[in-house]
Amino acid sequence: MTASPSYSDLFRVFGRIGLMSFGGPVAQISLMHRALVEEQAWLEEKQFLGALSFCMLLPGPEAMQLATFTGWKLRGTLGGMIAGLLFVLPGAILITLLAGLYVAFGQIPIVQSAFLGVKAAVVAVVLQAMFRLAPKVLTPPLNISFAVAACCILYMGVLPFPALILGAGVAGYVTARPPAVSTAVASTPMPAHGLARRTLKTAVFWGILWAAPIVLVWGLGHAFLTEIAVFFSKLAVVTFGGAYAVLAYMVQAVVTDFEWLTTAQMMDALGLAETTPGPLILVTQFVGHLAGYAQGGVGLAIVAGLLTLWCTFVPCFLWIFAGAPYVDTLLENPRLSGALKVISASVLGVIANLSIWFALHVIFQHVVSTRFGAVPDLASFDPTAFGMVCIGVILLILCKIPLVKTLALTAGISMIAGLL
User: Where are the beta strands (DSSP E) in 307-383?
Assistant: First the structure.
């Protein structure tokens, strides 16, 4: 491990990471490992893996939080802010531009044909995420039951996503095996009282920073912006399992409860977010922009998008800066590990539910909500959409063509089909 880098070196390396971080969290974490461990030697392998394990215990985008934690470890709070912001800002700027283009040109017939291909690719993307996660979380076999139960519970609307995640965490915490006595004796002691006081100050500072715009829009009496701020703040607390897991909750709330967007717009948002660098959870910013535009035009779209961005990522800095001094203690707690395992199994069920939801709304033109979940009108079957979904699955999952190329190919094929 080399000496701590200068701020200019930190800016240069994380700026490059932020511009090149395409392909979702797995690709982004691999990129950071190569840059930080292999090329710069700023972290040792053990430190990097420990930081990654810590970030996976937290709600929010683990790749962005890993960047923030690394910056904090190398250069303190300012270093963490530099690393975290550089990881997010390039993608956030592109999302703003894409949202503007979508609003301006999204209703043109040929563009709508292209977006049918994007939606088909999104179905394949979610299926791929499910297949990749399954081998990691379905052991022991009991976790299969948690995954199936989570899928059914969400599909039928028995419980909302936050309650499901809370229940899974409690179940995992309670059923986890306690550590052996020897492990408990050898475990890392809790940090000193002075550090705990400093942690409290950090949490209060970032908590106030997080709440400030929420209180402001509430005080101004702006009901829509208050709803945006409160909803995405709540989302920031329950986003265990990554963007695909939280999408199921967001689709239900944004499409069904608030009626800010349609299911088709949600799928377009995810498809466009897949093409930008940075965390996939930036899809929330796209949703904020579109919801704001529908409510009050361009000005409100910009404000709503920025407010969504704030309420999504400021909590990430809070989790990292407040929790970082306790990394060793948290990683050695077997009950927290047990809670995370059951949450991960439940997240697989959540992603399965999302894939079913998306597939039905792409392949069928009419889907009816019932007490047992979404039921398609079989007479509204769209063979073109079904064919595009099959092409997306073949390209992405079977042929293993990179995501951005798959999106471009399915959009292009769908556009040509629309012209015929």
Answer: 367-370, 373-376
- 13 token code pair: 């390396």
Q: Which of 236, 352, 354, 353 is nearest to 284 (CA)?
A: 236
- On whether the CB atoms of residues 98 and 390 are closer than 8 A, the answer is no
pTM score above 0.90? no
- Measured in degrees and rounded to the nearest 5, phi and psi for residue 222 equal -90, 100
Distance CA 416, CA 281 (A): 31
- H or E element that contains 407: helix 403-419
Tokens 């080399």 found at: 2
Nearest-angstrom CA–CA distance, 131 and 351: 10
d(CA 200, CA 376): 51
Alpha carbons 224 and 208: distance in angstroms, whole number: 21
Single-letter amino acid code for the residue at 59: P
Does pLDDT of 330 surpass 70?
Answer: yes
Cα–Cα distance between 400 and 22 in angstroms, integer? 16
How far, CA to CA in Å, does 46 sit from each of 33, 35, 52, 80, 394?
11, 15, 10, 19, 37
CA 309 to chain CA centroid, Å, is 13
- The full length of the chain comes to 420
Q: What pLDDT score does 183 carry?
A: 44
Q: What is the DSSP string of 317-330?
A: HHHHHHHGGGHHHH
Strand-strand pairing, 367-370 and 373-376: antiparallel
